[in-house]
Amino acid sequence: MNEDFLDDVGKDPRRFNRNSNNNSNAPQRRHEEQPPQKNTKKKWYVGCGCLSIIAIALAAFVYWAASAKEAEEAKDLRLKYLNQDIARLSTAISEDDVYSKLAKMCIDSTIRLEDGGDIDKSGIKYFSRRNNEKLLIILKVKNLKKVDASSRRAYVDALLDCFSYVEDEMGIEKYYISVEGFWNTLLVKTPQASDLGGKFANKKLLLPFYNEYVKDSLPDLGD
Q1: In angstroms, rounded to a whole number, what is the distance separating the alpha carbons of residues 97 and 94?
Q2: What 3 state SS string does 168-188 have?
Q3: Cα–Cα separations (whole angstroms), residue 169 to 53, 132, 161
Q4: Ranges assigned E (strand) in the chain
Q5: Buried b vs exposed e over 114-135: b needs ≥16 C-beta within 10 Å?
Q6: Is residue 58 packed enough to be buried (19+ CB in 10 Å), middle (13-18) or exposed (0-12)?
Q7: Cα–Cα distance between 14 and 19 in angstroms, integer?
Q8: Paired residues of 195 in beta bridges
């Protein structure tokens, strides 16, 4: 029998076909493996959309916070009264405002820096209100950069020390003291609780001062 014929018979035709298929598909796989091109323009529009969503969400949050604050003030008249009194803070103290005059004398003569230096006190604003045996004193000090937060309670201590000499004569038993900074309340001292950290204080601790006014349902508090 012809040896060439035997050689052809011994060959597996499937092996030949498999190799042929692999060779024919190789160029196609190389084409598929190429990385897709980035569409930077599409991503720019997507990012712009995210910023718009964030801006809308931020505006909605601000609106919600303002609405919640108004609802809280409408619900608790004491907070409305407190905000009214804070708005009345002034550097001009009338002659008949005995409590604010005494508070100013205390601060002017007592507050000093640790190195002995003086602090400009001309811009400090004052407000005071008497409610039976309770006394409310509010100060606003805009520039306290030279005073460490832990040392700012000296304003409260100075007021308590000065008024302690006249409280029996005046019939004062409870003090509600607040020191306002440029943006927020810094110190609060009340008979119920105090917040004297010197950075951020809860002004709502002053609300019990107005309890009697709320009972009388007064729509507004005069000077």
Answers
A1: 5
A2: HHHCCCEEEEEEECCCCEEEE
A3: 62, 13, 15
A4: 125-131, 134-140, 174-180, 185-189, 194-195
A5: eeeeebeeeebbbbbbeeeebb
A6: exposed
A7: 9
A8: 188
Tokens of 123: 């811009």
Instruction: Report the predicted TM-score, pTM, of the whole model to 2 decimal places.
Output: 0.66
C-alpha torsion 64→65→71→76, nearest 10: 160
- Residue 96, CB-side half-sphere exposure with 13 Å CA sphere: 2
Residues whose CB falls within 8 Å of the CB of residue 183, separated by 6 or more in sequence, listed in order:
none
* Dihedral in degrees, nearest 10, Cα atoms 143, 145, 146, 150: 110
Q: Tell me phi and psi for residue 189, to 5 degrees.
A: -130, 120
Give dist(CA 112, CA 89) in Å, integer: 23
- What is the rounded distance in angstroms from the CA atom of residue 164 to the CA atom of residue 170? 10
The CA distance from 108 to 162, in Å, is: 12
- Per-residue pLDDT in tens (0 to 9) along the chain, 223 residues: 555 544 555 555 555 455 545 555 555 555 555 666 655 555 544 555 677 788 788 877 776 676 666 666 567 899 999 999 999 999 999 989 999 999 999 999 888 776 666 677 888 999 999 999 999 999 999 878 778 888 889 999 999 999 999 999 999 999 999 999 988 999 999 999 999 998 999 999 999 999 988 765 555 666 5
